[in-house]
Design goal:
The complex is a heterodimer of chains A (271) and B (135). With 271 residues, chain A is an all-alpha fold. Chain A contains 13 helices and no strands. Chain A has one domain: MetI-like fold, CATH 1.10.3720. Chain A is 71% helix and 0% strand. Chain A is globular, with a radius of gyration of 23 Å. Chain B folds into two domains: 31 residues; 85 residues, Immunoglobulin-like (Sandwich). Classes of the chains: A mainly alpha (271), B alpha+beta (135).
Chain lengths: 271, 135
């Protein structure tokens, strides 16, 4: 009988890594409720006189609710578009057609082009469509992301082809095959798409900075920059703002982390 | 082989009773409750009392409300205390204020910083404003 090696050294190492990873988060949280200067020496591990007044300051210093709503709307549009377009593209890439290899190489090579390099054409196209300073325009460049297309493709590749053939024999059109057969079997890929597109949209700074015309259309990252320009003594309030911006993303990740991990690893053990 | 004894939720339960609905719903409920509380307690009242150095109520002292504006506190309004030394400021527009009291002959108090949980929150001072006794 094989003797199992003890797992505690691995757990100990993982706990140490977790500690290192979580300390900055704890420090931000601690400073947001204590306002302690980051150069205080020796630093207090436990917050002194914790309170939530820095959060109240942030709420009233800028139109936080408006920025939050804008970010939520833009993220919702981005997520919906990502799931629909990426699923369609991912499904198409699981089928055989002429030039598929070229398309795959084109996609992979496009991943190497940074958004900063294409921002002028993106701006001109958005302007031609009349979508500048609008929610759809804010979400437009992130309607589809290549990484997420490949996440869907990997997940769809794991579904037996006989299932699709049976659906075709039953007379289902392609879009219904994607909607009623592929997507329910690719929930983890969908969760990965939702989380990644949400985080990218939520944290996007450059595009909203360029294409918004009025303060009413600005999103939270722009609000953070505006907040920094307003106030000087911002130690506690700045950290509180960071927590308020980060919280929705962390919450979404915690809610869907199981599906997220499955989505990232699906296809990894195939073959 | 052991039979599976658990039952899987179906229909509306499947769509409603999951963490993706329950957690946002709970957050929304807390936000609505907080908003209701704030909207019923935001008349801007600030109530307190002014005492002299011996701890006796001071009548006719001027109590000033200072409101935080970007980097400094600006004077917003003043009221006079009653016979029992109490005062009631109405129309506080801010969540970050200071209060001070002064009466010729009895001196002035220190500015007391007050932080509120929302703008114009009704509040009663826990400790009175105490005049220094130095004219």
């Amino acid at each position: 009988m094989m003797r199992r090696s003890p797992t505690w050294p691995i757990h100990l190492a993982l706990i140490a890594v977790c500690f290192v990873m979580l300390v900055p988060f704890y420090w931000v949280l601690k400073t947001s409720v204590s306002g302690e200067n980051i150069f205080t020496y020796p630093p207090n591990i436990v917050p002194q006189n914790p309170n939530i007044f820095y959060y109240v300051d942030v709420w009233y210093a800028i139109p936080f609710a408006r920025y939050f709503l804008n970010s939520v709307i833009v993220s919702a549009i981005t997520i919906a578009a990502n799931v629909v377009f990426n699923a369609m593209a991912g499904y198409a890439l699981t089928r055989e057609f002429h030039g598929k290899g070229f398309i795959l190489i084109l996609f992979l090579s496009c991943m190497m082009v940074p958004f900063q390099a294409t921002i002028i054409p993106a701006y001109l196209i958005t302007g031609q469509l009349g979508l500048l300073n609008s929610y759809v325009g804010l979400a437009l460049p992130q309607f589809s992301t290549i990484i997420c297309i490949f996440v869907f493709k990997a997940s769809f590749d794991a579904i037996p082809g006989s299932l699709i053939d049976a659906a075709k024999v039953d007379g289902l059109p392609e879009w219904r095959i994607v909607w009623t057969i592929m997507l329910p079997l690719a929930k983890s890929a969908m969760a990965t798409n939702v989380i990644l597109s949400f985080i990218w949209s939520w944290n996007n700074f450059l595009w909203p900075l360029i294409m918004t015309r009025t303060p009413e259309m600005q999103t939270l990252p722009l609000g953070l920059a505006r907040f920094l320009s307003y106030q000087e003594d911002t130690t506690g309030a700045l950290y509180a703002f960071c927590i308020m911006v980060l919280a929705p993303g962390i919450l979404l990740f915690l809610l869907a982390q199981k599906e997220f991990i499955q989505g990232l690893t699906s296809g990894a053990t195939k073959g | 082989m052991e039979a599976y004894s658990g039952s899987r939720p179906s229909g509306w339960k499947k769509w409603l009773l999951n963490r993706f609905v329950l957690v946002p719903a709970a957050i929304l409920a807390v936000a609505i409750a907080w908003d209701l509380y704030a909207s019923t307690h935001d008349d801007g009242f600030v109530v307190g009392q002014v005492l002299d150095a011996q701890g006796k109520p001071v009548e006719g002292a001027d109590v000033t409300l200072w409101v935080f504006s970007f980097t400094t506190f600006a004077e917003n309004r003043s009221v006079k205390t009653g016979a029992d030394g109490s005062f009631r400021i109405t129309g506080n527009p801010s969540h970050h204020i200071q209060l001070s009291a002064v009466k010729p002959g009895l001196g002035s108090s220190q500015r007391i910083p007050i932080r509120l949980y929302f703008r114009s929150q009704n509040t009663t001072l826990q400790a009175p404003l105490v005049l220094s006794g130095k004219a």
